[in-house]
Here is the input.
Amino acid sequence: MDPVRYISNRSSGKMGYTIAEAALDAGHDVVLISGPVNLAPPRNTKFISVSTSDEMFEAVHRHARESDICVLCAAVADYKPAKVSPAKIKKRGDRMSLELVTTCDILESLGQQRDRPFLLVGFAAETDQIEKNAWEKLRRKNCDIIVANDARIGMESDENELLILFRNGETKRLSRAPKTFLSRELVKIFLKFATKTFDKKNVMITERT
Ligand code: CTP
Here is the structure.
C-alpha cells in the first residue's frame, strides 16, 4: 500500500516448501518461487524470492515451459491496491477506504496455454462446498489436478487434509496428516498422473477438454 504497509494473508507457505523438499528427496530438480514467508528454503533448490503477485507471475512464466510439472500452491492475493503511495499514508478521519484491483491469475494464465508441455497442478483453499468449488476451479483454470483443502485446517498448520481432483474425473482423499507426509504422497501422485498424461517427448497423450 505504501512504504510501510502491505496486504497479505494467513498462509504459512509450508505446503509449498514441503512439496519442494519431497520432490528434491525423490531426486527431481526443483525451482521454488516463493512470496515472503518465514521458512528457510530447502538446500539444492533454485530459489526465487518474490514480493508481489506481479513478480510471481513473471517468475512462474519464465520457468514454466522448462518444467515437467508446475505446482501452484501459493496463496496469491486476488486483489492489490489500485495505487501504491510513495509516501506513508497518513491517518485522516474515522474511516478510510482503499481501492483494490484484481491481480493476474497465474494458474489460469498457465491453463490458457495451448499445448503446454507440463502437468499443471493448482490448489484450492475453501471453507465451504469444498468439492464443488474445487471442481469448478479445475475447469475454470484448466488444470490437470486440483488439490483442495479446508482453509480452516491447513492455514498456518503443520497438518492438512486433502481432496485431490483429476481432470479425468477421478478423486483421491488423503486424510489428516503432517504436511511433510502429504507432500511425499503428492509428489508420487503428480508423477504417476504426469506419466499417464505425457509420452517420453513431453507430448500430451490424453485429450484435454
Ligand atoms: N492463484 C493464482 N493467482 C492468483 C490467485 C490464485 O495462481 N492471482 C492460484 C493459487 O495458487 C491456487 C489456485 O489459484 O493454485 C486457487 O487459489 P484460491 O485462492 O483457492 O482461489 P481463487 O482463484 O483465488 O478463487 P476464490 O478466492 O474465489 O476461492
Q: What stands out?
A: The helical segments are 14-25, 53-64, 106-111, 130-141, 151-154, 179-197. Residues 53, 72-74, 76, 78, 103, 105-107, 122-125, 137 surround cytidine-5'-triphosphate (CB under 6 Å).
